[in-house]
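Hi P.,

Sorry for the delay on this. The queue was packed all week, but I finally got your sequence through. Input first:
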Amino acid sequence: MSAARGRAALFLDRDGTIMEDEHYGREPARVRLIDGAREGIRQANVCGVPVIVVTNQSGIGRGMISQAEYEAVAARLDALLAHGQATIDATFYCPHYPERDGPCRCRKPGTLLYEQAAEQFGLDLEASVYVGDRARDVAAAVRFGGTGLLVPSHGTPAEERDTAGVRLIPTIREAMTVALATLGCAGHGA
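Then the structure:
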């Protein structure tokens, strides 16, 4: 579903990639950016690269966090980024809990949310870069032929560190530098 004439985007996972993973975090005061994320997002903004967050949020489906709590955390993340003049263009999230709701195409590694973003923003999924801390976060890169960058966090299982078709990058700061260069933003490193 790659729009060949569309723009390349920077697709980011949220928890464990641009902010510390609080496991069903619902307290805005606990939101902490991962070092290098804000600067990388800001540089993508400067280059005119769309920054799209795609995140699984099964805590909503599990009843562990409410929609209002999710939105408050998202607003806090946006505020912290804005403090550094960085902006996320859109966030797409899956609220489903597969064990209760059954399988869905929007829960990563499903690709529905990426496809929706591509349609909404006129994006080329093949030319895009996908960054995350779990194999499911970068699976779309393999599926669409894009560039996948896996940045291990404390929540990354050891067996996922060698995911076929993606590059292992030690920090989000380094991943953002690689992503920006891949997206044609050389000289604008994070």
